[in-house]
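Weekly structure sync, notes
Attendees: PL, DS, HV (note-taker this week)

Item 1: Anti-sigma factor antagonist
DS walked through the input record. Source organism listed as Koribacter versatilis. Sequence as pasted into the shared doc:
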Amino acid sequence: METNLELILQSRGETDVITLKGPLLLANIFAFQNSVRASKTPSLIIDMTAVPYIDSAGIGVLIGAYVNREKDGRKLLLVGVTPRVHTALQVTKVESFFSFADTLPPDTGGA
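Item 1 (cont.): predicted structure, written out as tokens:
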């Protein structure tokens, strides 16, 4: 079973984008968690297009990201969530916390 998670960080002015490639699991969440915590922009987009599955620890990190950003009035958007990951969020009854998009919004140059 593949456990490597690749993170690609991109700044778009007022928005940070974290692109994940690989499963989001207990074995690999710490770098992702640190990246989420380090983002201080008003908006954070997590591109999950290449995340085939997630475990409870991965869901926990997403909830932590939501709580952290929500308390400060900052936005979080999950992009490209696969059906398998979406089902995991539904089954655990946390899907309603998140905003979803099928694709990355266009980069407006920080506008």
